[in-house]
Amino acid sequence: MEFQIGEISHFFDIPASTLRYWEEMQVLSPNKGETSHYREYAVEDLMTISDVIFYKNLGFQLKQIREMKSNTPKQQANLFEQKLSELEQEQELLKLRMKKLQRHIEAVKTLEKLRQTPYQETEIDTECIVSFELIEQEKLLQYIEDPYLYSRVQHTDTLQQEQRGLTVLPDASNVFDESHIIWRKHGGRYMTFLMKEEVAENYPNDLQKHIEYLQQYHKTGDVISRFLLCAQEDGKVYDFYKTFVEIC
Questions:
Q1: How far is the CA of 42 from the CAs of 39, 98, 157, 185, 189, in angstroms?
Q2: What is the Cα–Cα distance from 168 to 1, expressed in whole angstroms?
Q3: For the ranges 106-120, 157-171, 203-217, which has the lowest average pLDDT?
Q4: Is 176 a residue whose pLDDT tops 90?
Q5: Concatenated DSSP letters of 187-221
Q6: Which one in 95, 167, 199, 235 has a CA-CA gap of 20 to 30 Å to 62?
C-alpha cells in the first residue's frame, strides 16, 4: 500500500512543505513513482514519520533525529539525559517567569485594594533599604528581577529630599557598607495609600495631598514608597506606588 504526499499530510496534519523539508534533511526517503515521479509513501514510512514526530515533540533537532538510529543505546541514553537536563532548566525558567507574572498580578490587586480602602494601618513590608543608582549594575539586575524592590525614602518634614533605594532582607544588608543604607525599620506604625506620579515633565504626584490628609489626625514621620507598576489612567501614564507613612 502506498500513499501520496497529500494523503500523508492530511493523515498526520502536517503541511506537505514540512514533509518535503524532512526529505531534504534526509529524515524521510519516500520512493518516487517510476512514471509519475510523485512521492510515494509506504506503510514503513508511516512509522518513520511517527518516530520523527515523537522526537520533535521532545525537542530534538532534525539532525539529531536523523542520527538517532545510528546511535548506540548508551549514546541515546546520554542524548536523552542531556535533553532532560535542558527541559529541567527550562522548567525552572518557566517557574521564575510565572512567579514574576504572579507578582505583577498581585501588584494590580494591591493597587485596586489601596484605591478602594486608603489610609489603613498596616505592617510595613520591608526592614532595610539601600541606596540605588541606575549605573549600579548589580542593583539594577536585582530591580529587573523584581521591580517591587524599588523604593523611595522621604520624611514628611523634608519631602523634597528624596532618596532612591532597593529593599533588601535584613541578613543581606550586612554585605553593604553602612553608608549605603538609607533606611532601617525601627518599629513604628504605618498607614498606607496609593500614590501616583505622572510620567511627565517634573513628575508631578499626589503625595503631598495624602500627607496633608493624614496630618489632620496624626503626627507623621518617614515615608516609604514601593513601586507597584506603570500604567495609563485617564489618558495619562503614571507610576503607581504603595506608600507607607509612619504615624507617631
A1: 10, 45, 85, 75, 78
A2: 69
A3: 157-171
A4: no
A5: S-EEEEEEEEEESSTT--BSHHHHHHHHTTT--EE
A6: 95
User: Which residues are bridge partners to 231 per DSSP?
Assistant: 238
Helix (H), strand (E) counts: the chain: 7, 11
Nearest to 138 by CA among 126, 122, 149, 154: 149
72 to 51, 67, 68, 84: CA distances (angstroms)? 17, 10, 9, 18
Is the sign of the CA dihedral 61, 63, 66, 70 positive or negative?
negative
pLDDT in tens, 99-156: 999 999 999 999 999 999 999 999 999 989 999 988 888 888 888 888 999 999 999 9
Query: Which residue in this structure is represented by grid cell 523539508?
Result: 21
Contacts of 56 (CB under 8 A, 6+ apart): 62, 65
Q: Alpha-carbon Rg of the chain, whole angstroms?
A: 30
Distances (CA, A) of 231 to 7, 67, 103, 108: 51, 51, 15, 10
What is the spatial distance between Cα 175 and Cα 146, in angstroms, rounded to a whole number?
19
Q: 184 with 128: CB under 8 angstroms? A: yes
Q: Has residue 161 got a pLDDT over 70?
A: yes
Residue 23: CB atoms within 10 Å:
14
Contact 94, 167 (CB under 8 A): no
**Whole-angstrom Cα distance, residue 241 to residue 193?**
8
DSSP letter assigned to residue 175:
G
